[in-house]
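Quick one:
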Amino acid sequence: MDIADLQKLAQRTRSEREISVALIFASCLLGLFLFIPLGQKKSFAPAAVATSTTPDAFASIPLEANAAIVYDLATGKTLYAKNADAQLPLASLTKLLTIYAALGELSPRTPITIPAAATHLDTPRAFSAGQTFALSDLARLTLTASLNDGAAAIAIATADRENRSQSDMLASAAAALGLSQTYAVNGSGLDVNTEISGGYGSARDLARLAGALVARAPTIAEATTQSFARAVSKNGVQFSVKNTDPIITTIPRLLLSKTGYTDLAGGNLALIFDSGIEHPIAIVVLGSSQKARFTDGTALVAATLAHFAGIASL
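Output:
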């Protein structure tokens, strides 16, 4: 037998040995399996379940408001809600719908004349009958100082252009945005009487409406974040009106602010601020008190910032 034959023999022997070892190992496994009685359940240690350790920044916020929401406009997610779908009186938050509806029908440069009827509405007012403004200028003044005469003039002009009633015009704008809880009977939001408000809606609807207005008219919305709004009428009269929201300087990257208060509604507030780069958050408070709407709003802003920072509170 030569060297080549010996090498072949050795290789065949190794292969046979490896096969034998594999068969023995398989036999042992089979025996172990058969040894376990049928029907006996093997116990396994439970798998670890991942749990979130991120604190809930909204867990213990004491709000006076009857309803509120923190709505992430970038993702469509609700970060906090309290009776967010309840239909409640809106007071001057109705003006957000009025301006949004007008900008959907009229050019920002459309001249709007103050009608005599608007000058007899409850305060706040700032204009005289016959004064004329570009829609964008009148909208900035109206939203910043919550002017009832300005809102009425805009609603009347828009309804006339559409050849329909104010309530139908406003209902059409709400429906276009899918605001199922929102409707208004006038453009200012003033109470019609002791039982009927000028406008109704939910905190969720108002968050979406405010976001839509910022998207449609960012420069008009920006005026509501300043201490004063200024404009010149077509008649050459200069106007400077003060913001009705005293907390605008305390909110970082504020994009919109709107206050509202009537006997039926109580204190309302709508805010939009940027929590990051192009990450707008809407906060709406309904049915609070005249003072507590601002503390409620401040608390929700702080909780939102804490939420994104991953901490319980600031």
